[in-house]
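Open question from group meeting: does this chain pack into something compact, or does most of it stay loose? Before anyone orders reagents, we agreed to write out a predicted structure and look at it together. Recording both the input and the output here so the notebook holds the full record.
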Amino acid sequence: MDSSINNGSFGKWEMVKKNKKAGMAGKMQNVKKGDGGRKALTEANMPKLYPSSPLKTSQTIFERFEKIGKKQNKEQVPPASFEQQQKKRNAGKMNKKPYSNENGQRSGKFKSLQEAFKALDIGDLQQQLQNSQRVFAENPSVWVKDLAGYLNSKLQAPDNDPTLSQHPYDYPYCLASKDLKNIIKTLLGKSPTAAEELFDHCIYSMLREYDKPNGEALYGYRICIQALLMEKPKIATLNLPSYLDLLRTYLNKPTKCLTIMWALGQAGFTDLSEGLKVWLGIMLPVLGTKMLSPYSIAYLDRLLMMHPNLTKGFGIIGPKDFFPLLDFAFMPGNALSPSLQDQLRRLYPRLKVLAFGASPESSLHTYFPSFLSRGTPHCPEGMKKELICSLTECLTFDPQCFSVWRQLYTKHLSQSSILLNHLLNSWGSLSGKVRKSLQETVQSFQVTNEEISLSTKSDHVKACAAVCTNLQLKMKRQRFNWSRLLLVGLVFAVGFVIHDIRAQGSFNGSSVAQVLQQSGMMSFSQQAYNKISVYSNKGYSWLETNAPYYYSEMVKTFGPTLEMAWEKTIVTSAYITEMCAGQIAWIKENAPKLIELLSASIPECVVNFIEYLKVLLLFIHQNYLPLMTYAVTLMDESWQTFVKSCNGEVSWLCVQNHLINFTDSSWSYLQNRSIAVKNWALDLISRHSSA
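Structure tokens returned:
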């Protein structure tokens, strides 16, 4: 038997090697029996501990019902054939890498979302929610999650755009029926403590759907988010830092990022301040990202268009948020494309109003240092104009900016020289208060320039000193004051009239009254005064009687229309101001120069005109006055002769007879003259022919 075993195992060296290892292992165990025996014995007697599987989260009642339904459907399907099973195995081997539905294109059971809403069974939804509330009576978070899950499973339609940019701002919630909206609002009212949990659940559920190979459409979750934020928009801003971290983890998956941005941005369509918080906390940090920047700016545009009254957003944007926007809007070569930069530049004036707030006279000094530091000589021209305009606005509205400027002067000499040059060129448009503050500031700058020039020689210091000298000369130069001239003329005229009345004793005896009487203005003015007084009394009595009634009727009839027209006018004026910003800036820049030129040249022209008029009047008085006297005398004599020819009474018949006589005499004279000329011409021709 042994020989048969040996013969059968001939050539099988592996078996011999394995037996040797087993024998060596047995020997080693016998050697270490004294030390390891006890240990092996204790290990054999102790119970073994197996690692437990991770705990699973509890399922909602709706998810449990769905799984039971899917299981029953699977049991009714006949088993696949062997060839199909073999194909599935091969496909599984080939595609070992998990698939992610990141492109956002998902097809549903219905062709459109409207059809899905029509097919939605409101009664079944109410029954599911009643079951959920009965089973989980103490857990309202399960109710709202069941609502979101049910709606999302039933509203399956094509969903290809994570931002729904081609639809209204309240899409898809606007398609819901009144009954469905009432059910959602009622359930949210019953579970106020679960609102924040529902919001987080909807966002994370949407993100998980993108990881599935055949993920569902997300309309149900979107509807729950919109319904929730319409009532409580502050929920979206309770945990913005966490959502920003989540957004940054998905920067390589833009569909998920856009979904997060869309969900948080729904708060802004109800409350402007919450929308600005979301934009500043979520969208501004990723504004330079290529795939996310278009939606960020489009959302900001829609947000500001929906809220034309910007006062509700005051206090949200501060200097730390405003100046990155300024750089994005005006600095060339940044992460934004030229079209997006133009779009942001059109929104910039409204963002500037939001940043300056309701009381710019007490907040602009916090913006002045950043404006000043950016206004370097190498700054782009468009941004330089905006910085100069903003700096001038700061100096005009907030007097504290002058003290801030004096503190920053030595560190920003080049920027200060540019600003001083602008103030010099626009001196005529500055108010008296700004001129007074600027005068004190320039004097301190001159002292600082002298101190710096003693230690170092710099071109910027020389430029600042030259501009300060020109400004001081401009301040000392007196400007022609037209308002004072008009005031003096008015006072002189009133004083002359009062002196004339006092000298004559009464107004009727004064020379002013005589002039008015001779010109016919006295009687006309008295008649006009009497008529005006009569009609004004009648009008006052009529208004006193009928004005309250007609006013109330007009308010009832035209009040809503006028309010809408006023809102549209505000929006239109803002749009026109935005579109004509370049022309307005040009006018603001060049109008002070024109005013200064007119103020400097018109007074000399007026003086020269008065001198020329004086010379002309003297020449007429010396040369043409006797001629005028003779002409007046001749006209008077001619008139007297004409009156005598009419027997002392001028009538239309007399004038007609004189005209007929004058015409007949003129015609006879002309006829005689023409005959005489004809005879002279014939006589001259006969003489030439005879010769």
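Observations to bring back to the group:
Residues 630-691 form one domain.
Residues 1-100 have pLDDT under 50 and may be disordered.
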